[in-house]
Amino acid sequence: MHELSIATAVVEACAERAAGARVLRVRLEIGRLAAVMPDAIRFCFDLCAQDTAVEGAALEILDIPGRAVCASCGEATDLDTPIGRCLCGGALRIVAGEELRVKDMEIA
Length: 108
Ligand SMILES: [Zn+2]
Prior knowledge:
Elements: H1 2-18, E1 23-31, H2 38-49, E2 58-64, E3 66-70, E4 76-79, E5 92-96, E6 100-107
Parallel strand pairs: 1-2
Antiparallel strand pairs: 1-6, 3-4, 3-5
Helix pairs in contact: 1-2
The structure holds zinc ion.
């Protein structure tokens, strides 16, 4: 499962950054176009966090809406799926919504 490897990477990155301290809270940004299921991440995160500095940490998921700009007319559009075309027929360039990163975290 794709989400499991993401959760593993997030837990590892947080444990490393905590440098021995306990992680209390992790804020993760997930773009709506990142093709990642927040519920699956939550589940895998708890699983991966066991026996690490991240165990018991609260996972807060920040939903980033998808946004694209038309390559032809420059019009900005909101996107819920990574595929689409502008009303003018131009190709869309995604400018937001593909995020998948740890925004910040709180340590004890
Ligand atoms: Zn356009």
